[in-house]
Amino acid sequence: MEVDFLTKEMIYQKSSQELTALLYEAAVTNLKTAIKQLENQQYIEANQAMQKVNDILHRLGVGLNYESGIIADQLDALYNYMADQLIEANIKKDASLAKEILTILEEITGAWTATMKAKPTLKQSSFRKQSSAYEKHVMVSDRELNTVEVGK
Prior knowledge:
The protein has about 150 residues and is mainly alpha-helical.
């Protein structure tokens, strides 16, 4: 029971970037398990592992910030493609299709990890985001006041 609490506590302390990295790692791990199970003709276990990967892909898609530009649209399309291919691999029990998805996932995971290492510390980054959010709120409030004054 205490281990679950510590795990949940650790998760709550992670940044969104770190949580995304954990999701990528879990997807890769589960997909490797699924491929191994497909090759061993353990189809029930392979199905369960692929369902976990599909769930992770869905969560990654839901977590995208579409205000960040074209990269979010491209990642969404890529997640959807991988989910579709994963369903096809599951139906056909085709390990080669699953391996293609694994290659893509490993590339994304590597790029994400490298980007996280190259960025400034997370505390600096989150401070900038908080400042930016505060400034946006102030600007919106100022605009509302100006609108009211203009209308008088």
